[in-house]
Write a structure and sequence with these properties.
The two termini are 37 Å apart. Strand 6, helix 4 and strand 7 form a beta-alpha-beta unit. It is built from 16 helices and 19 strands. The protein has 447 residues and is of the alpha/beta class. It folds into 3 domains: 122 residues, Response regulator (Rossmann fold, 3-Layer(aba) Sandwich), CATH 3.40.50; 163 residues, Alpha-Beta Plaits (2-Layer Sandwich), CATH 3.30.70; 128 residues, Response regulator (Rossmann fold). Helix 7 crosses helix 8, helix 8 packs antiparallel against helix 9 and helix 13 packs parallel to helix 14.
Length: 447
C-alpha cells in the first residue's frame, strides 16, 4: 500500500543546496532547493513540505530567525525544521533549538548521515499522522495524497466508504464493539488494496481509498462481500437469526434497525475536473450517500447516474410528492383518533382516520399514505393490527410505507416481528410521537 511522496525544501547557498538536493532525491522524496529565504517564502505560499533543511548562516540573515518565523506563520501540520550549523559550540546549538529548530546538524554533514536522519524524521512524521485506531494514514496524509493526485498526469479513482447505522450499533452494543467493526472495515480495505493503492482513515467510520489502477468498482464489490461475510461475527446469534437489531429510545420506543452494512461512493479523474481535495471528498461522499439508498452493503460510481432506489420511501419520488405528507391513523378509540387527527393536521400532515383494518388496507392500496399509525387491538374479526402490519409489509407495492405501531401491548417484539418500523408504547406523550413521525418522514432510508 502506497503513501504520499514526502516533500522536502532545502534552503542553502547554491552549491550546497544542489548537493544536498541530489542526495535527498535518492530517498524517494520530492525535493525543492532554493538559495534564499525570499525564494522559500514564495514556494511556501503553495507548497506544503514535510521537512525543511536550512542553513544557519545565509547571506541574507540568520537561519534561526527563519525557523522562528516559520513556527509563527505556518499552520498545522508544520514541517519538521532541520538546521545545518557550522559551529560545534554546544551553547549555539542549544540556542538554535530555542529558536524553534527540531534538529540541529553539522554543516557540512556526511551525505549518508543526512539521508538517514531525514528518513528517520519523515518516518516519525508519518507515524504521527496515522489514525490511532486503525493505524492507517489520517486526514493530513489523505489531503497530501489527494493533492498529489490532482496534479498527477496519471488517471486515478477515489473511493469513499463508511458504515451504515454505526451510531445505533454503538448505542446497542457499546463504543468498544463499534471500534472493532471500524477496525475490521479498515483491515478489509487494506487487504483489498494493491501495492499502488492508498487507503486512509479520515475519522470515525469514514475511509478513503485512492487507486491509480483500474477496476476499483470490482474492488468495491469485493469490500462489500468481505464485510458482509465478516460483520455477522459482531452480533449475538439472536440478532442474526432475526435479521435486525432493536434500538431502544426514550419512553420505551423501539425501532427495527437493519444489520450494519457499508456504503461506497466512487469518483474518477477521467469523469470530471476536481478543483481541490475537498472537492474530491465532497463528490465521492455524494455518491456514497446515494449508495445508502440501496439495501445492504452497496456501492455507486460516477459511471452510473445517481438514481433513487426502489427501496427509498415513496414520499421522495412519488409524482404527488409536492403535496402534504399523508398519514393514515388506524385507531379504534374515537377520542384518541380525533386527538391524533387534529394534532397531526396542525403539524402540516394530511391525515385520514379509520378504526377498521379492512378499511385501512383498502385506503393504503388506493392512496399509498407515507405513514400508518396503527393500534394493534382492532375490532375486525378477520384481521387485527398485527396482521394488518404483516400484510402491508409483505405487499411489494406497500412495503415501503412507514408503520408506527402505537399499542399498550407490553411485548414490543411482537410489533417489530410483524414488520413495524417503530414500536410506541401507550400511553405516550404527544411530543414524542410527533418527533418520531417527523424523523421517519424526513428519512429516505428505513430506520
Amino acid at each position: 500500500m502506497m503513501l504520499p511522496t514526502p516533500q522536502i525544501l532545502v534552503i542553502h547557498q547554491p552549491r550546497q543546496a544542489a548537493d544536498y538536493a541530489s542526495v535527498l532525491e535518492k530517498t524517494g522524496a520530492r525535493v525543492n532547493a532554493v538559495t534564499s529565504f525570499e525564494e522559500a517564502n514564495e514556494l511556501l505560499s503553495f507548497l506544503h513540505p514535510d521537512l525543511i533543511i536550512l542553513a544557519a548562516n545565509m547571506p541574507e540573515g540568520d537561519g534561526r530567525l527563519y525557523c522562528q518565523q516559520i513556527r509563527a506563520t505556518l499552520v498545522h501540520p508544520r514541517p519538521v525544521l532541520v538546521l545545518l550549523h557550522e559551529s560545534t559550540d554546544v551553547n549555539e546549538r542549544i540556542s538554535a533549538f530555542r529558536y524553534g529548530a527540531d534538529d540541529v546538524l553539522g554543516d557540512p554533514i556526511d551525505k549518508n548521515e543526512l539521508a538517514i536522519r531525514v528518513l528517520a524524521h519523515l518516518r516519525r512524521r508519518q507515524e504521527e499522522f496515522l489514525n490511532p485506531l486503525t493505524q492507517l494514514p489520517g486526514p493530513n496524509l489523505i489531503r497530501r495524497m489527494l493533492e498529489q493526485s490532482l496534479v498527477s498526469d496519471r488517471p486515478w479513482t477515489a473511493m469513499s466508504c463508511d458504515l451504515n447505522k454505526i451510531r445505533v450499533y454503538n448505542e446497542t452494543y457499546g463504543d468498544l464493539a463499534g471500534d472493532q467493526l471500524i477496525k475490521a472495515l479498515g483491515a478489509i480495505l487494506a487487504h483489498v488494496a494493491d501495492d499502488d493503492d492508498f487507503v486512509g482513515h479520515i475519522e470515525a467510520d469514514d475511509f478513503l481509498m485512492v487507486s491509480h489502477g483500474e477496476h476499483l468498482e470490482k474492488k468495491a464489490q469485493k469490500v462489500c462481500d468481505q464485510f458482509d461475510q465478516i460483520s455477522q461475527r459482531f452480533y449475538p446469534r439472536g440478532d442474526i437469526e432475526r435479521g435486525y437489531l432493536i434500538s431502544t429510545g426514550r419512553g420505551g420506543i423501539r425501532r427495527r434497525v437493519p444489520l450494519i452494512s457499508i456504503a461506497i461512493g466512487i469518483v474518477s479523474s477521467t469523469k470530471r475536473r476536481f478543483q481541490s481535495y475537498v472537492d474530491v471528498l465532497t463528490i465521492s461522499r455524494d455518491y456514497r450517500y446515494a449508495a445508502k439508498r440501496k439495501t445492504g452493503s452497496a456501492w455507486l460510481s460516477d459511471n452510473q447516474p445517481i438514481e433513487l432506489s426502489p427501496n427509498v420511501k415513496r414520499s421522495q419520488h412519488h409524482p404527488d410528492s409536492d403535496k402534504l405528507p399523508s398519514i393514515l391513523v388506524v385507531e379504534p378509540d374515537g377520542a384518541m383518533a380525533c386527538l391524533l387527527q387534529e394534532t397531526l393536521s396542525l403539524e402540516g400532515y394530511s391525515v385520514e382516520v379509520t378504526s377498521s383494518a379492512d378499511d385501512a388496507l383498502e385506503i393504503a392500496r388506493e392512496r399509498h399514505p407515507d405513514l400508518v399509525l396503527l393500534e394493534s387491538h382492532l375490532s375486525d374479526r378477520q384481521m387485527d393490527g398485527w396482521e394488518l402490519c404483516r400484510v402491508l409489509k409483505e405487499d411489494r407495492e406497500l412495503c415501503n410505507i412507514w408503520i408506527v405501531m402505537a399499542t399498550s401491548h407490553p411485548d414490543q417484539s411482537l410489533a417489530l416481528e410483524a414488520g413495524a418500523d417503530l414500536y410506541l408504547p401507550k400511553p405516550f406523550d404527544m411530543p414524542s410521537l410527533l418527533s418520531e413521525v417527523s424523523y421517519l418522514l424526513r428519512s429516505g432510508i428505513s430506520a
